[in-house]
Design brief:
The protein is an all-alpha fold. The protein has 10 helices and no strands.
Length: about 180
């Protein structure tokens, strides 16, 4: 069996979208009964996504078999992905067909834009928070009144040293917030 060309796959996906558009009005009750989104109760012309697509794909899964390249994906998932990608292209052929006339809300929906930085980010080492830094960040009022902790009170080192000099071998600290 020959592998279908990208054009054949695109034509098939387009015909499946047209078939989906014709299938929706006859299956609105099933779509709404299985929906988790209240928007399915709206008129299909105002839908901004393809509701009932999983049901449609499960019913017509036999039609995707000639176009499946490998068996790594479940056929229904592959079918759904294939026609969703075609719908996302929003070609003029799709826009002017049955699908475009049935779902203008989907066809005219603006694409979401995502901005991903292409530069590699350097790992930044987080500074170790000290007692002094934590106190200042937690108490902006003291900083504005200039009554904040002094840097000389920045650690417990002197307390630990004093305890060690006094002969302590261990101690427990309980903190209550």
């Amino acid at each position: 069996m020959a592998i279908p060309s990208p054009l054949e796959r695109s034509n098939w996906a387009h015909s499946m979208l047209e078939k989906y558009a014709a299938w929706v009005p006859a299956n609105l009750d099933r779509i709404r009964a299985n929906a988790r989104i209240i928007s399915t109760n709206d008129d299909p012309k105002s839908w901004n996504q393809m509701f009932g697509l999983d049901i449609f794909c499960a019913e017509h899964v036999q039609e995707v078999k000639p176009f499946a390249i490998n068996n790594s994906q479940e056929d229904v998932v592959y079918f759904r992905t294939l026609i969703s990608r075609e719908a996302g292209k929003k070609s003029s052929r799709l826009r002017n067909g049955i699908y475009g006339k049935s779902f203008p809300g989907i066809i005219n929906k603006k694409r979401a834009t995502t901005y991903v930085s292409r530069k590699a980010k350097k790992a930044v080492q987080e500074p170790v928070n000290t007692v002094y830094a934590n106190a200042v960040s937690a108490d902006p009022i003291s900083a504005s009144l200039d009554t904040s902790f002094s840097a000389s009170q920045d650690s417990l080192e002197s307390v630990i040293k004093s305890a060690k000099d006094a002969g302590a071998t261990s101690f427990n600290i309980n903190v209550t917030f």
